[in-house]
Amino acid sequence: MAYRVTRTDAEWRRILTPAQYQVLRQKGTERAFTSPLNHEKRRGLFRCAGCAWPVFSSADKFDSGTGWPSFKRPHDARATGTSVDRSLFSVRTEVHCANCGGHLGHVFPDGPPPTFQRWCMNGVAMRFEPR
User: Is residue 97 annotated as a catalytic residue, yes or no?
Assistant: First the structure.
């Protein structure tokens, strides 16, 4: 898939922290309850840590109790993309940044109204920009 932001592996390694690289570029998962973004309550935007694309709004954030920042929906229809993830002996829906392709997390059908979706994201894959 073609993305607006493309970099070589060496460039990604240079601009991302090791934890960001492992999640965004290698589809890793941070440990639950380790992200400071779990406790972020201010108004603002959550941006992809790889390219600064706006991916989620604080207006849609909720505490899912899972240990990862969770949202009812993406910032807008162009913010993220999804694909089928068949790893870990299950089928899940992977979420990636629509601008750079960085892995953000997964979406599940067990969220609150009105979407009934839980966009469960890795905090290390995002940065918060307060309004």
Answer: no
CB 95 within 8 A of CB 107: yes
Which tens digits make up the pLDDT trace of 8-45? 999 999 999 999 999 999 999 999 999 999 999 999 99
* Mean predicted lDDT score pLDDT of the chain: 96
Residue with tokens 């229809």: 77
Cα dihedral sign, 30-49-8-107? positive
Cβ 98 vs Cβ 64: under 8 Å: no
**What count of other Cβ atoms lies within 10 Å of the Cβ of residue 4?**
11
* Residues 6+ away with beta carbon under 8 Å from 80: 55, 74, 95, 96, 97, 98, 104, 119
Domains and CATH numbers, the chain: 9-130 (2.170.150.20)
Closest of 16, 14, 19, 26 to residue 101, by C-alpha? 26
- CB 120 within 8 Å of CB 66: yes
* DSSP three-state, residue 60: helix
